[in-house]
Design goal:
- The chain is α/β, with parallel strands linked by helices and 334 residues long.
- It has helices at 20-23, 31-38, 54-69, 93-100, 117-130, 156-159, 207-212, 226-247, 265-275, 286-289, 296-306; strands at 3-12, 17-19, 42-44, 78-82, 107-111, 136-143, 165-174, 180-188, 196-197, 223-224, 257-260, 315-322, 326-333.
- Strands 1-7-6-4-5 form a five-stranded mixed beta sheet, sandwiched between helices. It has a four-stranded mixed beta sheet with strand order 8-13-12-11, sandwiched between helices. A two-stranded antiparallel ribbon has the order 2-3.
- The chain is globular.
- It starts with a strand and ends with a strand.
């Protein structure tokens, strides 16, 4: 059995910065209202007329990750792409990456686990490497939220939260079982699927109904029962982090860096306080980028590494919770 380790990291954010004050021109909201509830100050939204999509942003982040890994595109054996906002209903973005990067005809897999998407994706890639099937795997998380949001007062409770962006990493074989990804832990509870959902389009709401839908049909916009999601998130975050620590004989005090999914700064602060972690032990960037769903953990991990906040030998914990409900963690010895 091999371990897998992260050998390259990359991120990409659209240039267009949208502040809370900018949103106040579109809907009845203000900077204080948004910051108090979410901690978000600004986010990146793809500007109309630019080339960016989930796949395009993912490819841009991937090129950086591959270059930093010291490998070439031809060294990559497999692609795992996580998103809830693919360019097409089908096919998924993974095959687009294979084409955009002019890679050999390697396999490409798409993961649809929303906010937990990247941690699920890295777990899948880790298993492929652990079994010896592949040596180098490209893992991407990317989201293009802004084109599917209700940017009116009616949708403000959801629309102020989400941003666009992408992150990527290269996972490579590591023969030292004390380094790299030590374990991953995945969970779901589908009975709460309707608490955070986009109901349409779907096979049950297909083309004739889409064409006939009026302006009052809200099934095409994200719906979230915010308080319900928050209450479950803080419980499941704690559980899945503790599960990972226990699996590896670690304590809360052994965490050098926690990278939580950037869903809401208040959730991250609650977990930080519960675990007794200092500010330099938790990395948050939701203030700048909003919730980028499957991209949030990898963007934050990349940024923390770029800023020198993660060092060799550190115990790094990734944790996420979101729609599904799904939740997951990964314990990494850097």
């Amino acid at each position: 059995m091999y371990n897998s380790k992260i050998t390259g990291l990359g991120k990409y954010l659209p240039d267009n910065v949208v502040t809370n004050d900018d949103l106040s021109k579109l809907m009845d909201t203000n900077d204080a209202w948004v910051q108090e509830r979410t901690g978000i100050q600004e986010r990146r939204w793809i500007k109309e007329g630019t080339e960016d999509t989930s796949a395009v942003m993912g490819a841009k982040a991937a090129r950086i990750a591959i270059e930093r890994s010291g490998l070439t595109k031809d060294d990559i054996d497999f692609i795992v792409f996580a998103t809830l906002s693919p360019d097409y209903y089908f096919p998924g973005c993974g095959v687009q990456i294979q084409d955009m990067l002019d890679m050999p005809t390697i396999g490409a897999l798409d993961v649809r686990n929303q906010c937990s998407g990247f941690v699920y994706a890295i777990s899948v890639a880790d298993q492929f490497i652990k079994t010896g099937m592949y040596k180098n795997i490209l893992v991407i998380g990317a989201e293009y939220h802004s084109n599917g949001l209700d940017k009116t007062t009616r949708g403000r409770s959801v629309s102020v939260i989400f941003g666009d962006g992408a992150g990527a990493c290269v996972l490579s074989r590591e023969e030292d079982n004390n380094k790299g990804i030590l374990s991953t832990h995945l969970h779901s509870e589908g009975k709460y699927a309707d608490k955070l959902i986009v109901e349409s389009p779907s096979i049950g709401h297909w083309v004739p109904e889409i064409k006939a839908a009026g302006d009052d049909d809200l099934t095409y916009f994200p719906y979230m029962d915010g308080q319900f999601v928050f209450k479950h998130a803080v419980v499941r975050f704690s559980e899945v982090i503790m599960e990972g620590l226990a699996k590896n004989g670690l304590q809360k005090e052994d965490i050098n860096m926690l990278i939580p999914h950037q869903a809401n700064l208040r959730i991250a602060q609650f977990i930080q306080k519960k675990f007794g972690l200092q500010d330099d032990q938790v990395f948050n960037n939701i203030q700048k980028y909003g919730n980028t769903t499957a991209a949030s953990v990898i963007i934050a991990l990349t940024e923390a590494w770029e800023e020198g906040k993660i060092k060799p030998g550190d115990n790094v914990v990734l944790a996420a919770f979101g729609s599904g409900f799904t939740w997951a963690s990964a314990i990494i010895k850097w």
